[in-house]
Design brief:
Shape: globular
Number of helices: 10
Number of strands: 7
Strand content: 5-15%
Largest sheet: 3 strands, mixed
Helix content: 25-40%
Strand order of the largest sheet: 5-6-7
Structural class: mainly alpha
Number of domains: 1
């Protein structure tokens, strides 16, 4: 996940700019060939993750899913750790392609929740991370699978984006922030993958933090700026991609006189 514009105090914003610059680049989607290929197994159990989603993910009045991190006691944390360990014991290359994609999405989201729980006093994931002056935990080694150590950036930019080539993944992986697409309250599986990816995409595009019409044009989530290459070759293509999925706004989206701006709120998606 790219480090982008932060709503918050001027000192923190200044630090952000000084450390990484105001236009810090997104990691390229470069395939990790070790993980390429698929088997015929689809029976991965995501029951533990589903039980945690049922108990701790709540939808706010503003339509954003939030997580009851502070309500997760030691037993809940143990369930989360057990789920992550259960996935680490599987070689995902033995799974069908759909089961693999669901596996990596759920693992990314579970690892992110686990990171947040390691920093109970932090109000933004940008302030979490093991490395000095790190803006977020995305380059921290968090898990070992099939003898390979992985970071969140590995999962997103070296596996999910390049190996599956599905732009809807940006509406599935959750960075624990208010502007991020929701942490779905349903675990991804091989069976529900297509319908849940579509549901998450349409939910985000229908919410103001994803796409909002303004007097002069549109304010989009910075996701469409950072990852434009995954949606279209240029802004014209991005407008067309959005227009096909928001037919109620299609004419305005295709109007190049309507200016597009980007915004992102990195405050933690915590349920108070």
């Amino acid at each position: 996940m790219r480090r982008g514009r932060v709503k918050g105090g001027p000192l923190w914003l200044l630090l952000l700019i000084l450390v990484c610059g105001s236009a810090h680049a997104v990691p390229d989607a470069e395939a990790w060939e070790f993980w390429r290929g698929a088997g015929n197994r689809a029976d991965v159990s995501h029951g533990l993750w589903q039980s945690l989603l049922d108990e701790f993910v709540v939808r706010g009045a503003d339509g954003i899913n939030r997580v009851r991190y502070r309500a997760m006691n030691e037993k809940a944390r143990e369930r989360l750790k057990s789920y992550i360990q259960s996935l680490a014991a599987i070689d995902p290359r033995t799974l069908t392609r759909a089961a693999q994609q669901a596996y990596w999405i759920n693992l990314y989201n579970a690892l992110t929740a686990d990171v947040v729980l390691d920093y109970p006093r932090k109000k933004s994931i940008l302030r979490m991370g093991r490395k000095l002056l790190a803006l977020g935990p995305w380059d921290d080694s968090l898990i070992e699978i099939a003898g390979q150590k992985l970071t969140l950036n590995d999962i997103e930019h070296r596996i999910l984006r390049p190996l599956f080539g599905d732009e809807r993944v940006h509406f599935a992986v959750n960075c624990a922030s208010l502007s991020c697409p929701d942490l779905a309250n349903t675990a991804y599986t091989a069976g529900n993958l297509e319908s849940l990816l579509d549901e998450q995409m349409h939910r985000y595009l229908g919410h103001p933090r994803g796409l909002r019409q303004t007097a002069g044009g549109f304010e989009l989530s910075s996701i469409f700026d950072w990852y434009q290459v995954d949606f279209a070759a240029d802004e014209k293509g991005l407008r067309e991609w959005l227009a096909k999925r928001r037919p109620d706004l299609a004419a305005a989206l295709r109007d190049k006189r309507k200016r597009i701006t980007y915004e992102y709120d990195w405050k933690l998606n915590v349920a108070e």
